[in-house]
Amino acid sequence: MDRLHSLQSDFQSFLLEGDARIQQRVTGTEKASLQVRLAIYHDAYRLRLIEALDSNFPVLHAWMGDAEFENLSLAYIKEYPSTHFSIRYFGHHLAEYLATNATYRDRPFLSEMAQLEWALSQAFDAPDSAVMALDDVANIPPSAWPQMRFSLHASVQLLTLQWNVPPIWKAINQHLHTAEKQNSCRGDTSSTPSSVPSPSQGEGWGEEDINDVPAPTLSEYPQSWLIWRQDLKNYFRSLPVDEAWALAAARDHNFAELCEGLCEWIDAQNVAPHAAGFLKQWITDGLIRKIDWS
Q1: Phi, psi values for residue 82, rounded to 5°
Q2: What confidence tens digit (pLDDT) does each residue in 34-75 have?
Q3: Architecture of the domain made up of 129-164+223-294
């Protein structure tokens, strides 16, 4: 068992750090030298992680183009090696890496794009659960409304973004899906959305396609965005500042406390129906999993 553990440790060190000790435990053949055999595993490990990043960040990949995205992926793999048993979660530090690394931090919209795509992937994978309907709320006694506390669906996430990455994401994502459908109709199964070049480079994009992709623009003020999943489909929408505050506060505060906090934006006479309007929209969108009022 000790020898097996030592072999596994040396092999892992080779994959992650290029440690040469494993060469003493591997032999070459007539068809493949020692270096070639090890390189197969070394490269395959990184290619698999690059595929995982592409799966989680397809629009970021398309925007950057294949070459730059591959360079980013290799640098990220070196900085943040995979530590989870499931490759699904590889990439959760990418937005932070883009925001702080000297190569990318002068393009902060890349970090925000990574934030958005990671939030969308997490929303899609969030546990499913039943949600409240408007009829359920109608059965709550009016006297209990001040005490209502809310449990949100696991997919609900809030992001604060200062760049216009959601419309950029929407335009590029639409192009990727169109290209994928065209390839499928031609029977071309070798092409994937990840092979679509960057719109900033222009290659592979028609003039109308490029014009449909907004240029990165910095907003004067940060904008809150809601991301969630409903009926197996992801959605996102911008939120006014009062609704963004209320939805964030709904995790820890009852309805009366939400109304009190909303008085920063709404006069006290109108705050209760205003908050009720938010609640109606949240239930319609499938954001509320449970309401307790006891």
Answers
A1: -65, 130
A2: 565 665 555 667 788 899 999 999 999 999 999 999 999 999
A3: Alpha-Beta Complex (3.90)
Query: Which residue from 225, 249, 254 is spatially nearest to 238, judged by alpha carbons?
Result: 225
**C-beta separation of 221 from 160 below 8 A:** no
Residue range 211-265, pLDDT digits in tens: 689 999 999 999 999 999 998 899 999 999 999 999 999 999 999 999 999 999 9
pTM to 2 decimal places: 0.82
Domain locations in the chain as residue ranges: 129-164+223-294
Exposed (0-12), middle (13-18) or buried (19+): which is 45, by Cβ within 10 Å? middle
CB 115 within 8 A of CB 159: yes
- State how far the Cα of 104 lies from the Cα of 97, in Å rounded to an integer: 8
Longest dimension (CA), the chain: 85
- Three-state SS string over the chain comes to CHHHHHHHHHHHHHHHHCCHHHHHHCCCCCCCCHHHHHHHHHHHHHHHHHHHHHHHCHHHHHHHCHHHHHHHHHHHHHHCCCCCCCHHHCCCCHHHHHHHCCCCCCCHHHHHHHHHHHHHHHHHHCCCCCCCCHHHHHCCCHHHHHHCEEEECCCCEEEEEEECHHHHHHHHHHHHHHHHHHHHHCCCCCCCHHHCCCCCCCCCCCHHHHHHCCCCCEEEEEEEEEEEEECCEEEEEEECHHHHHHHHHCCCCCHHHHHHHHCCCCCHHHHHHHHHHHHHHHHHCCCEEEEECC
Torsion from C-alpha of 53, 163, 99, 170, nearest 10 degrees = 0
Spatial separation of the C-alpha atoms in residues 161 and 115, rounded to whole Å: 9
